[in-house]
Design brief:
Strand order of the largest sheet: 1-2
Strand content: 35-45%
Helix content: 25-40%
Shape: elongated
Number of helices: 2
Order of helices and strands: EEHEEH
Largest sheet: 2 strands, antiparallel
Oligomer: single chain
Number of strands: 4
Number of domains: 2
């Protein structure tokens, strides 16, 4: 099994990608079980992209701050 993790953002705005191939590893079953559990636990909610001028962020419900939730509700209710 090939597992890939990509991390982006932060102050520098860079991106880092790492791969782990479980083939031939003594601990392969632990990694594979963990990967299956991690992918299965994805929240079933709305996805949002908020763009303010030239800056965009991607968000997923239920992981929204109170300010993000208020902004989303307001724009969806009052926006054109």
């Amino acid at each position: 099994m090939l597992i890939t993790v990509t991390r982006s953002g932060g102050f520098a705005g860079g991106e880092e990608e790492r791969e782990l191939d479980t083939a031939g590893r003594l601990d392969a079953s632990q990694w594979e079980d963990l990967a299956h559990r991690a992918v299965a636990s994805t929240a079933d909610g709305y996805h949002y992209r908020i763009t303010v001028d030239d800056r965009a962020i991607d968000l997923q419900d239920p992981y929204l701050s109170a300010d993000q939730r208020q902004l989303i509700r307001g724009v969806l209710d009052e926006g054109a």
